[in-house]
Structure formats: C-alpha cells, structure tokens
TrEMBL record:
This is 2-C-methyl-D-erythritol 4-phosphate cytidylyltransferase. Its EC number is 2.7.7.60. It comes from Alkalibacterium olivapovliticus. GO terms for biological process: isopentenyl diphosphate biosynthetic process, methylerythritol 4-phosphate pathway. SUPFAM superfamilies: Nucleotide-diphospho-sugar transferases. The keyword RNA-binding does not apply.
Length: 237
C-alpha cells in the first residue's frame, strides 16, 4: 500500500442534468448541516496519508467554495490547493496534475465531489490494490439487464455478471496517470473517466468492490435520495 497520496477533488462540473433551469453547482447544495462537497473533503483532510487536496472548481465559484470552507474549518486547511477547472473533466484533471506542489506522492486519487458517501475502508482497499496494478477503480455489479444500443435498436445483450458500474475515487500510480493524461492530450482523445485513459495505453486496470451507498448526485432525484440517507443515518463512514 502506498504510504502517501494526493487527491484531485473535482467540483467544477455543470448542473445541466441536475436542473436545466439553473446553473447552481450541486456540490454546493446543503446536505443536512453542511455542503455536499464537504463530505468527501473532510474525509481527505482527516486522513494523515493524504498530503495534498487539489480542489478543482470553476473560477467564478472559487470565492463561494473558499467562503464555505473557511466557515466550516475556521481557517483555510493547508492541504488544499485551489485549481481552476478546464472545459471538460479531463482538462480539469490535467490542470490539477500541473499544480501539484513539491515532490509528487507515489499515488494519486481522482474523486468526484458529487459522491459524498465514500469510506475510509474503500480508500484503503483501492490503495492496497496498487501493489499489483498501476490503476485501481471501484465498481458495483449491475442489477438490471444491460443492452448495447445503437440508433435506438438493441445491438447486443451484455452478460450482467461481466458488467460493472464504475465509481470514484479511482487511484493510480502518479506517473502512470501523468503519462495517460499527457498522451490523451497529444492525441486529442477524451475519455469518460481516468481509468479509460490508462486502459487505452495497455496498462492493467484492476477493479475492487465499490459501495452501493457511493452514489453520484447527478439529478434532483439523486439529491433527494442523498438527503434521505443522511437524515436516516444510513451512511457508513
């Protein structure tokens, strides 16, 4: 297991799927007594193995994130490095990698701030996997039947046991992720997530069991469900 790691905490996404009438960032929404983003931020701040938190936001929202963070912690935590996000998710990751201070940690995590319910155990299992693979990602089994669809017509039925819903955080050997992001930029390739960038270079990407509770708040329904989980204390930490 890597002794130390850095984390890229992505909070620069748009809210187009959350509410088409508003561009309010969903991770700034309240979840009980604190904003969504703080659930994962606090996890990394309290972990002595986490050296740097590269907190990626939109430039226009930076003051609001800083204000809320100071309100919670009374002063700005020294681990946080503020990064201005790019146009796409991959651009934001690239910006964060460029802003790491000092010597890079041997491992780096990439996490969506819109996934508030990560656990210390999941982080430990991901880091432990780096002893065998340069990239480790969490996934949960599909419950529904899965179809590959082209032009609204079923092209192929997928074997459910072989399909996983992929989550974050995803963890990488730092040099491996740097190589994958750099190559993608050079070839103008955009992937859905960072594991895909590493995979396309031929590196092994291992999958560990993710968490049912590790939902991503993407829609208004997701937010309603997340509020219910917190209020009913149905969340492990």
């Amino acid at each position: 297991m890597s002794e130390y790691y850095d984390v890229i905490l992505l909070a620069a996404g748009s809210a187009t799927r959350f509410n088409h009438q508003s561009d309010r960032n969903k991770v700034l929404m309240p979840l009980k007594d604190r904003p969504v983003f703080d659930y994962s931020l606090s996890m990394f701040l309290s972990d002595p193995k986490c050296r740097n938190i590269l907190f990626v936001t939109r430039e226009t929202e930076r003051p609001l994130f800083e204000e809320k963070t100071k309100d919670i912690y009374k002063e700005m935590p020294s681990k946080i490095i503020w990064v201005t996000g790019g146009k796409e998710r991959q651009d934001s990751v690239s910006c964060a990698l460029s802003d790491i201070r000092g010597d890079k940690s041997p491992a780096i995590l990439v996490h969506d701030a819109a996934r508030p319910f990560i656990t210390r155990d999941l982080i430990c299992r991901l880091l432990a996997g780096l002893s065998e693979s340069p990239a480790v990602i969490p996934g949960i089994m599909a419950k529904d039947s899965m179809k590959l669809v082209k032009a609204a017509v079923v092209d192929q039925s997928l074997q459910r046991s072989a399909v996983r819903h992929i989550q974050t955080p995803q963890v990488f050997r730092t040099e491996c992720l740097l190589e994958a992001v750099t190559r993608a930029e050079e070839e103008q390739f955009y992937g859905n997530e960072e594991g895909e960038l590493v995979e396309r270079l031929g590196y092994q990407v291992s999958v560990v069991e993710g968490l049912e509770q590790n939902l991503k708040i993407t829609t208004a329904m997701d937010y309603t469900f997340a509020r219910f989980m917190v209020e009913q204390q149905q969340v492990d930490r």
